[in-house]
Fold each of these.
Amino acid sequence: MPEVLLDVNSDGVALITLNRPEQNNSWTPELEGEFYEVLGAADRDPLVRVAVLTGAGRMFCPGAGGGRLEEIAESGIDYTGRPQFIRTLQFRKPLIAAINGGCAGVGFIQAMMCDVRFMASTARLSTAFARRGLPGEHAISWVLPRIVGVEHAMDLLLSARTVTADEALRIGLVSRVVELETLLPTAIDYARDIAANCAPEALAVIKQQVWTDLEAPLEESYERALRATEAASRSASFREGVTAFSERRPPNFPGLT
């Protein structure tokens, strides 16, 4: 069985599932390789407009497991030839996390690199790194403060404590908390609405704007927005958006090439 599943529905929503339920979807180099192959395929597929990431079974992803930590403790980590995790941030389409269960370590990083996070009320989160003798991995020290601020990021990284769904919602780690049985349908409905009503080209540019502008001066961000808007105003997506609005019908935007 594949360790990462990809299912694209007719609405343009891709469901990406970490598929090692017997091992609680623990992260391995093999799963990592499959994950980035699937993510790349979804990025290239013009039929995919939005993606939802979740875990099979009762867990999202607790990080490394199945003896992997013991192997690392014996021989250390060698990242040579392995994909950079920032490729998750560089996925051009909206990526929605549906956190169905335990989420820690590398699993926590992948969830934080999604654009929007939905969480089951019974799920739990932890950075976990400090309690394993590790620093913040894969630029989580860059991503996390931009989601929840420096104070909360320091708290979560230094203590590596467990966070409930209610606290995750309160401090802004996640956008929605719902019951487990409604988690995936809720996330997919949200993705379906974006896929049906938002232009893929605009979504790709907006994602790039948000992450780029976090490090940019206001004037630079403003100028970049002007250039992007000028280009978009001449696009087929803009013409379709205006026409659909005027005709009071659902838009039929072209896919992302």
Note: Strands lie at 4-8, 13-18, 50-55, 95-99, 103-104, 116-120, 124-126, 163-164, 176-178.
Amino acid sequence: MTATAFVGLGVMGFPMAGHLRAAGHEVTVYNRTQAKAEAWIAAHGGRSAPTPAEAAAGTELVMVCVGNDDDVRAVTMGEDGALAGMAAGTVLVDHTTASAEMARELHAAAARQAIGFVDGPVSGGQSGAEQGQLTVMCGGEPAAFERARPVIEAYAKTVTLLGPAGSGQLTKMVNQICIAGVLQGLSEGLDFGRRAGLDLDLVLATISQGAAGSWQMENRGATMARREFDFGFAVDWMRKDLQIVLDEASRIEAVLPLTALVAQFYGRLQRQGHGRWDTSSLIELLAEG
């Protein structure tokens, strides 16, 4: 059993923290909305704290899963932030999809207090979090990673150290670039098939067994064909992630024409009021024609 704190109980953090508790770890939670913390305790036990610093006090590992760079700073820095409550020799893990620069900033702040740091963004979406089957992409020093890995495995199917601080965030950016391209291609293929009068269920069953097959086709193809999007990884989150990608691409002079185009498409869906739809809703823009 490891004494842990989990900061941020959104659609990802709520089940992730629950898996920690189910694995036998001691868990103290913090959430900006206290009602969510109370709901988590009702479901899983454990306890909550009024600030991230108080949640982190006396723990060995602190996990953070919030919205963006500003949210990370708000719950980790300052007198009420998690770092203020952590002791030397403990480890802070940030599961937020944030910028690589945020990871490096947090690593430096933690190091000044002799605290280990791992940036560990995740892939697998809400269903992966609920099933404890996330892919966790990590950056940081090996010693901190090895301290955190056995605990992270409570909600992960793979946990990989990819390099120094920031490497996890950079790998998540590669992940989102690839997903954006696959979803746009799948959207165009399915819309083409619909317009050509094909049986899309039969098409998907056939081509999913060949080189075109992908996780997105297997898990989203049928719902895309039926125009069902009220679930999964939200457009708002993907648009945020792709902006992080494009900002980093500008910094390192990487050329991402398809990613930039898909980011614009997600912006259109947001303006139409569909920010909470699943990312597979890209196909709706093609149906307009």
Note: Residues 71 and 78 are 12 Å apart (CA to CA).
Amino acid sequence: MGHGTGGLSGPAIKPIALAMVYAASQKVRIPIIAMGGIMNADDAIEFIIAGAAAVAVGTGNFINPRAPLEVLSGIQAYMKKHRIQTIKQLCGKVRRP
């Protein structure tokens, strides 16, 4: 906003952010913290599968102040349903060509 215009954020940035997390995870071996359009647990899980070690909720907080708690409980439910013990088991599990 310092230049008089806003940037792209929220759900609009998600496809770009998801692609960038995947690309970065193919090049580096350090933990990636993903952010960009995470509104619910499904969004967060997509980023984790793409290679993120952790996620952050930004715009979602303005729409739903409980979003981070709902994302966390949704991830926990997904892991329980699929018998996943740790996030590391899920991180980067996207099918590579």
Note: The helical segments are 14-27, 41-50, 60-63, 67-81, 87-90.
